[in-house]
Amino acid sequence: MTPEFVVSFAKEAIILTILLSAPMLMLGLIVGFIIAIFQAVTQVQEMTLMFVPKIVAVFMGLLLASPWMLDEIVTFTRRLIENIPLYIK
After folding, report:
1. How would you label 29-44 residue by residue, b for 16+ Cβ within 10 Å and e otherwise?
2. pTM of the model
3. What is the spatial distance between Cα 29 and Cα 40, in angstroms, rounded to a whole number?
């Protein structure tokens, strides 16, 4: 195993992690921004108004994106396992 291989493998794993977390993070960001605007306009400063919709949006995003996420993880793992003979040379 060369240092270049280890760096490229780590880079690929980090990119996969970012891609898998992006749908939930973006939904949380969008819902949080909309609720923050609503709170600023109405001057309602209730903390649960911020957290409950964000949790629901992230959960719904997880449910909707889970087939794609599972496919990406399985593809990455399958490629990793299939290439083990190449890695140990």
Report:
1. eebeeebeeeeeeeee
2. 0.77
3. 16
